[in-house]
Write a structure and sequence with these properties.
7 helices, single chain, 6-stranded mixed sheet, 216 residues, alpha/beta
Length: 216
Amino acid sequence: MIQIKTFYFNDLRECCYVLYDNTGECVIVDPGMQSASEEQRLVKFIEENSLKPVKLLNTHGHFDHVMGNAFVTEKWGIPTYIHKEDIGQLERAQQYCQMFGYSIPKPPVENLVELNDGDNVTFGESSLQVIHSPGHTRGGVCFYSAPDKFIVTGDSLFQGSIGRTDLPGGDYDALMESLLNKVCKIADPFSKVYPGHGPETSIGHELNTNPFLRYE
């Protein structure tokens, strides 16, 4: 069974997740740390629970989700998994940070593993299905566990809302297609949703209450 630890990092309160199972292996999803104290919060949890990070997973390449990529990859020497359509976002993350008044090390673009729709990302005894969900960015992905009934949606789906589509690479129609005809059909309605910002929710709750998720 996969266990999940949630961190809220940086001024935008981005959600970083540590997913781990009883083997002790873990993956770190969207490490958005912007300060040394945030970095140490992550390290402390991993060390106190005797976890072994094996992969860094990015749901997409926006700067607030990759601020800590350099720290994580240097600290644990692990590869970064990201969809090929968002590698450009990753390459420009440091520049975007500077535009918003942040200073971060440049996220490394070596030792990248390209994610594709339908891939399975494994760690320990666990596996996550990759669902390509373009719309917020061209290379946005979700990570779904059918056995444990949860999905990490990044900035594709939030409680009561969806990701913005007015940034470079955004496409409202593509996001609606991703959510209605892929994410919400593949994921079990009882699946818990772990979004890129804000509180947890569930697929069923969003289908019943989210004003954006309306089938015609």
